[in-house]
C-alpha cells in the first residue's frame, strides 16, 4: 500500500492549505475586460491558459518531480515569466506551498530549496518537489499542476460572475482530456533536455497581470 | 522586376505560390509588403522546398567602426549592406528575393556580432508565411550571437501568417554579459480579413549561457485556445514584443508600466526589459511598441 493515489488527491485538493484560493489565474482581469462573461468564454479562457501557462508550469513541476536541479528550474521559470507581477505571485504561492509541503511530506530536498530560496521558489517547482517527496510520479505532479491551472480560474469565475457552479465544473470536466494530454506532454518534455522545456506563453495573461496588480481594490491577489 | 540575390548564388527558382484570397497590400500601410514572388522562370523547385542559409558577421574594424567580413545569402534572402545613419555601425537589410517561407522550406539566418562591433539589421518588407506545394511545415531559424561590448539592433518587419501556411520560427539569441540588444518581433495573424495559418514562434535569449527570456507563442488552427480570452482575446490579430537587454538593467531594473489596456512594459528577472503588446492589426501594434518610448543611450 503506497498511498500514492490518495496523496495525489491531497496535493491536488483545492483545500490543501497552499493559498491558491486567493488567486484567480488572470480570470478577474479577464472578467473586468469582458473577455470572460459566461461558461463558453470561461471555457475558451481556461483552454488557452491550460495549453500555454498550464503546459509550461506542468513541465516545470514534472521536471522537479523527476529530480532535476530545482534552482536551474527556478531560473528557467523566471525566463518564462516576463511579468514581474506573475513572478511575485509564483514565488508567493511557492512559499506557501513550501510551508504546507514541509509540514505534510518533509524531506531534505524541500529543506534545501527552502534554504536556497527563502522568499519562495516558483510554485510549480515546489509542487513538483512536494509530489516527489510524497512518493508521486512526474506525471502525477504534471496532472496536479495542469488541473490547478484551470480549476483556479473556474472557481474564481463562480465568485466573479455569480456563474452557476455546475456550469463552471462542467467547463473543467470538458477540458479533462486536454488536461491529461498537457500532463503527458509535460512529462515527455521533462524527460528531455532542460533547455527544451516548454515555454508556451499567453501574451494577454502577462499584460493583464500587470494591470491587475495596480488595481486599488480587487477580489483576488492575482 | 529586379531580382537581388546573394553573391553569385543561382536563384533556386520555383513556381509562384497558390493564389491567396486577400490582397497582401491591405496590410497596414507602414508595413511594406513585397513578397517578390517567383522572380525566376519556372524551373521546378526541389520536392522538399527551399534550403537557404544566410550568414552575417559583423566585426570591429579597429578604427571605431564595424566591418562585415561575412555577408552571404541565398534563396529567399539577400542580405545587403545599406547606408547607416551612424557611421560607427554597420547596417544590413534583408531583401526578399523570392516568396518565402512556403511549406517545406528550411531557412536559417545566422548572425554574429563580434566583440566591440555594432550592427543594425532590418528588412525591406514583411515576411509572409504561405502554404507551399510541398506538404509539411516550414522552418525559419534565426541565430544571433552578440559578443562583449557589442551592440545589436534586430528590427525586421513583421511576419505575416497567411491562411493555410504552417511555420515554425525559432529565434535563439546568445549574449555576452556586456552585450546590448534591441530586438523586435512582430506577428500578424492573417492578412486583412483572412484567417491565419498555423504559426509557432519561440524566442530564446541567454546571457552568458543563462536563460534570460524563453517564450513560445502558438496561433491558428491546431493551437488550442489561441483566440480565447487568455492568449489574444477577440479582435486581436497582431502580437509583438520589443526586447531590450543592457547590463545597466542589472543595477537599475526598468519600472513596469501599462501602455493602454493591451500592452505592458515589464522588467525581466535578469538584465532586460520586455514590451509585450496585442492589437487589432500591424499598424496599431507598431504604434504601441513605438509608444513604449524605450530610448537607449546607445
TrEMBL record, chain A:
Give the Gene3D superfamilies listed for this entry: Urease accessory protein UreF (1.10.4190.10)
- Keywords for the protein's UniProt record, in alphabetical order: Chaperone, Cytoplasm, Nickel insertion
Q: Specify whether Transit peptide is a keyword of the entry.
A: no
Q: Which InterPro entries match?
A: UreF, UreF_sf
Q: Does the keyword Chaperone apply?
A: yes
Where does this one sit in the cell? Cytoplasm
According to the record's subunit comment, the protein's assembly and interactions are:
UreD, UreF and UreG form a complex that acts as a GTP-hydrolysis-dependent molecular chaperone, activating the urease apoprotein by helping to assemble the nickel containing metallocenter of UreC. The UreE protein probably delivers the nickel.
Give a short account of what the protein does. Answer: Required for maturation of urease via the functional incorporation of the urease nickel metallocenter.
As for family, the record states:
Belongs to the UreF family.
**Record protein name field:** Urease accessory protein UreF
Which species is listed as the source?
A: Streptomyces iconiensis
Gene symbol of the encoding locus: ureF
UniProtKB/TrEMBL annotation, chain B:
Which residue windows does the record flag with biased composition (Pro residues)? 12-22
Residues annotated as region Disordered?
A: 1-24, 64-85
| Keyword match Chaperone | yes
- From the Swiss-Prot or TrEMBL record, state where the protein is found: Cytoplasm
Question: Looking at the Swiss-Prot or TrEMBL record, what is one Pfam family this protein matches?
Answer: UreD
Main subcellular location of this protein, as a coarse class: cytoplasm
Q: Which UniProt keywords apply?
A: Chaperone, Cytoplasm, Nickel insertion
Look up the domain of life of the source: Bacteria
Q: What does this protein do?
A: Required for maturation of urease via the functional incorporation of the urease nickel metallocenter.
Question: Which family does the UniProt entry place this protein in?
Answer: Belongs to the UreD family.
Q: How does it assemble?
A: UreD, UreF and UreG form a complex that acts as a GTP-hydrolysis-dependent molecular chaperone, activating the urease apoprotein by helping to assemble the nickel containing metallocenter of UreC. The UreE protein probably delivers the nickel.
What is the designated name of this protein? Urease accessory protein UreD
Its source organism is Streptomyces iconiensis
Its taxonomic path starts at:
Bacteria, Bacillati, Actinomycetota, Actinomycetes, Kitasatosporales
Protein encoded by which gene: ureD
